Predict the structure.
Amino acid sequence: MPLSLHAALVPTWTQILGACRTWLDKAEAHCQAEGLDDAELIDARLIDDMLPFKYQVKSCAVHSMGAIEGVRRGTFSPDMSEPPASFAALGERIDEALAFLADLSEDEVEGFMGKPMKFTIGDKYLLNFTAENFLLGFTQPNFHFHAATAYDILRARGVPLGKVDFLGALPIEA
């Protein structure tokens, strides 16, 4: 049986978003243990020309839940709203995405196949996709980029995370 679009996306998004939720908890605990202001991590960047940790976390929700919402509309534009500015608010954003994905039916995702999809930035930039090419070739790589960047920011700032923290709950068979 071929792999479904839902199976190619939703379990991995759920796995990494769950891991991200744990990173937030560990980052907050690290701030408390080290006497750091939470903003030192929330606003941290890998390098000056990259967006901060809070944006990277927000983008994990945008490139999972937001991508599905975009496919439903037939258009997706970058979410330029201000990212949540506390560990609690970032956690709520991740929890919202996890709940959204838990309620997403496989039938709906499979129904996206072949649907036209537009990526736009205002009226200056337009990319045309099919829904499956948008989800697999654009948003999935973006999701993993932002997740890895969020994780790397925390590691670079001394938060005690390892590879197992990045992977989260593995989909192993009992």
About this structure: The CA atoms of residues 58 and 83 lie 6 Å apart. Strands lie at 75-76, 116-121, 125-130. The longest strand covers residues 116-121.
